[in-house]
Amino acid sequence: MIVLTLGLFGVGPWGMLLFAVLIISGGIPEFYNLKGINQKGEQILSITLGVTALVCWTFGVPFIWVLLGLLIISSAGVLVGNISSISLFSHFYITIPLGLLQFVSFQWQNQYHFEFPLFLMVLVWSSDSWAYVSGKLFGRNKLAPSISPGKTWEGLIGGTVLTAITAYFYSHYFLTDFYFPDGRTPIWSETSALILGILVSIFGTLGDLFESKMKRKAGVKDSGNVIPGHGGILDRFDAFFFAITVMAIFHLITYVLVNR
Questions:
Q1: Distance between CA 141 and CA 129 in Å, rounded?
Q2: 28, 180, 191, 257: which could form a disulfide with 185 (CB 3.0–4.6 Å)?
Q3: What is the pLDDT of residues 53-83, one digit of tens each?
C-alpha cells in the first residue's frame, strides 16, 4: 500500500486523481454496507458524482464551486430523488477529504508538489506506528474500550508526541523552500509542522474510532476484504480522512493570518 500510494503521488496530479478514484470506488460501497444499505444503483451514482467532483478539481475548477455543486446535487437527490442520506454523508466522509488532499498539494505557487501529500501520509503512518509501539510498551488505561479495546491513553500520548517530533524534522529537512506569497513566512515552519503533527495524531485517532464505531453498530470486524489481512479501504484510510481535513483547515487559517 505504501509503494502504491507513494508511486501514484509521485506521478503528479493525475496519479493523485487515480489514487482518489480508487479510494472512492472502494470506500463508498463499504460505507453503504456499514450503514446496512445495499443499493447498488445508488452506490454507482454516488461514486460517479464523487469522481466527477475530483476530476473537476484536478482540471482546476475552484474548490468552493465544485464543493457547492457536489452538496447541492447530493442534497437534491436526497430531498426529491428518493436517494438515501447516506449518499450525502459519503461525500462528507470520503469525497471532500480527497478533494482537500488535492487542495493542500497545490499550496505553493499553484503548482503540484509531492512533498505536501507525502507530509500528510508520513504523519498518519507515524501516528499509527508510534501509537501502536507506545501502547504495547506502556499501555495500561483504555482509551475507548467499548469501541476499540486495543487503544490506550498511553498509546495516544506517545503517538502524538512522537508524531509531532516527526513532523518537526520532516519540515526542517523537506519543506524549508516553500513560503507564503510574502516570501518570508514558511508554509510549514518547524513550529507549525509540530502543531500539525499533534492535530493529525489526535484527529487521526478520532477518525479511527469513528470507523470502529460504525463497524460495531454493523456487527462486523472489517469494513471489507479488499486488502488481505487488513480489511477494507475504510480500515486503511479512516484516520487519513480526518487528518487531511484538519491539515487543510490548519493551512487555510494560517494562510489567512499571514496574508490578511
A1: 18
A2: 180
A3: 999 998 888 889 999 999 999 999 888 877 8
Report the C-alpha gap between 188 and 68 in whole angstroms: 29
Query: CB within 8 A of 220, min separation 6: which ones?
Result: 34
Beta bridge partners of 152: 142
Element (H, E) at 142: strand 142-144
Name the residue with cell 506569497. Answer: 181
Residue 189's nearest CA partner among 122, 125, 258, 240 is 258
Pair 160, 172: CB distance under 8 Å: no
The torsion of the CA quartet 10, 16, 21, 24, rounded to 10 degrees, works out to 100
Would you list the domain boundaries of the chain? 1-105, 113-260
Torsion angles phi and psi, residue 174, rounded to 5: -125, -15
Cα separation of the two ends of the chain: 40
